[in-house]
Structures are given as C-alpha cells and as structure tokens.
Design a protein that fits this description.
about 210 residues; alpha+beta; 6-stranded antiparallel β-sheet; 5-stranded mixed β-sheet; 1 helix; about 40% strand; elongated
Length: about 210
C-alpha cells in the first residue's frame, strides 16, 4: 500500500511539473507574439510609430504633417512622438491595387526618468488635423512600458507592449487616406437609323 501511494504521489508530481512547464512555455510564447519592442540592459527597448498615407493613382502627394498624442497614466514620465511630414517631392513608391501607400516612421521618446521598476502606461493617438482632403486615423492604443532593474544599479526599459480594441498588437500603425475632389462626365450616345434620339435615360452612381 505504501509503495502504491508513493507511485501515485510521484505521478501527480510529474503531472504538475509538466503542467507548470506547459504554462510557462505558453506564457513565453504569448509574450513573444504580443511584444512590440524588447531590450537589454546595454540597449533598452525603443519604439517607433508607423504612419501610412494612402492615395489613389493620379493624385499628387500633398504637403502635410501629422502629429501624435501620447498621454502618461498615473506616475509615468512624460513622452513625445516625433511628427511625420509628407511633401510633393516624396517618392510614392510602387502602385499596388490602384493606390500608393507611403510609409514613414516616428520615434517615441520618453522624456523623464522612470522613478522605479514596474509597468508604466500611456495612451497613444493621432491628433486630428485640418488638411484638406485628408481622412485622419481615429485609432487609440494603450502602451505599456515594462521597466526592470539593472544588475549594476539603475533601471532600463525591458519590454513595450501595445493594445488596441482589447487586442495586443505587434506594432503601432496609423493609416490616413488622401482624397481629392474630382468631376465626372457621363455621356450617352444613341446610334442607328431607328434610334429614338429624344429618349431620356437615367443613371445611378453608387
């Protein structure tokens, strides 16, 4: 009986260890997918925001600058995001599916010092501008900055994650569309010896 109890206990212990290892592995894999930036004590994690500007074929790229808002929560230090500027001299790149997508990047800069190790939170969004023809992005991200101790003293940014609409993201992206008013002329021709050239036709544009 004692030997049987020992065997059962050993099996239970082995099962628990396997379960713990499985959970740890899942957490590690999950973090790898959800992290937008990682760093080391020598080179801490840094982050950039991706700005995409979309425009259709035949439309000239405008002169426009996009700005961002990053707001600290609780005791998080202040931070800024560099503005992104486009001009008519920019190379739009390759045409894909009838449109151009010009991507640029802006650095996220943490101005103040983190007071202690822990998790610091920010909200990130794009500032609504007034440039004619530009449709501004309305996305809002929750940024979490994980600050850890250095072995020789001090702190460093170890990990940065981002959440949008309750889902973890692999990057922070704001996409804008540039549209331009245009006129369209529809012409209807009736041909043939017996065609009624006085008949009215109706058109519907969707």
């Amino acid at each position: 009986m004692k030997n049987r109890k020992k065997i059962v206990a050993a099996l239970l212990a082995g099962t628990m260890m396997m379960g713990m290892n499985t959970i740890a592995f899942a957490d590690t894999a999950d973090m790898a997918v959800k992290t937008v930036a990682t760093g080391t004590q020598e080179t801490e994690a840094s982050l950039t925001v991706t700005k995409n500007l979309e425009l259709a074929e035949g439309i000239t790229l405008p002169d426009v600058t996009f700005s961002f808002e990053i707001s600290p929560v609780a005791d998080a230090p202040e931070a800024t995001i560099d503005p992104v500027a486009y001009s008519t001299e920019d190379n739009p790149g390759a045409l894909e599916n009838g449109k151009y997508v010009i991507s640029k990047h802006a650095a996220v800069r943490f101005i103040g010092e983190f007071p202690k190790p822990g998790v610091y939170e920010y909200t990130v969004s794009e500032k609504a501008g007034s440039a004619e023809g530009v449709i501004y992005a309305t996305d809002t991200y929750t940024l979490r900055v994980y600050v850890a101790n250095k072995t020789d003293g001090g702190f460093y940014i170890k990990t940065i994650t981002a959440v949008k609409d309750d889902e973890k993201q692999e990057e922070i992206v704001f996409t804008n569309t540039y549209v331009k008013d245009a006129s369209l002329v529809i012409k209807k021709e009736t041909v043939g010896d017996y065609a009624d050239k006085k008949q009215d036709f109706e058109f519907t544009i969707e």
